[in-house]
Write a structure and sequence with these properties.
mainly alpha; single chain; 2 helices; two-stranded antiparallel ribbon
Length: 170
């Protein structure tokens, strides 16, 4: 036993009793192995050549994300506005004055309107305030034309009956 290691005494004692297995040989370290230093910080050197590349990629990624977010917000707001506009249009078809103050407008701004009713301004034939009846000359002509047509038809009918009566007497 010329081996002077601390395990020299137990090197001949088999630890495994199975005959198919044998004890592995001890690992021998090479003579030129480099020992670890007391501090390993000099071995950690960071190459700062990657920094500009990473920073430019990150800034371009952020601008792309911001552009996508702005486009998405614009789309969503336009969609909400479109839905609101459609809802208002549907409500205006049902009730045209919804949401606004109704202001009276003249049917034909070039001609003056005729006020029918009492002479007191603001009181119409119903007696309530603001119930003045306003008719444009075109509406009066239409009523007159209908009445004139009716009178003309009645006169023609009467003239026919009188002419038949005279012809039957003769």
């Amino acid at each position: 036993m010329t081996d002077k290691s601390q395990y020299a005494a137990v090197s001949n004692i088999p630890l495994i009793k199975s005959p198919s297995l044998r004890v592995p040989r001890p690992v021998e370290l090479p003579q030129d192995i480099h020992p670890l230093p007391d501090s390993v910080t000099p071995y950690f050197v960071y190459p700062f050549t990657l920094e500009p590349h990473i920073i430019t990629l990150e800034s371009s990624r952020r601008t792309t994300i911001a552009a996508h977010a702005a486009r998405r917000e614009a789309y969503l707001s336009s969609r909400v506005e479109e839905l609101e506009r459609r809802r208002r249009d549907a409500l205006h078809r049902i009730a045209p004055g919804l949401g606004t103050v109704l202001v009276p407008t003249r049917a034909s701004p070039s001609t003056s309107a005729h006020v029918q009713g009492t002479s007191t301004p603001g009181y119409g034939s119903t007696g309530g305030p603001g119930s003045v009846q306003v008719q444009s000359p075109g509406e009066q002509d239409k009523e007159r034309n209908v009445m004139d047509d009716l009178v003309n038809q009645l006169a023609a009918l009467e003239s026919r009956t009188t002419s038949r009566g005279e012809s039957s007497r003769s």
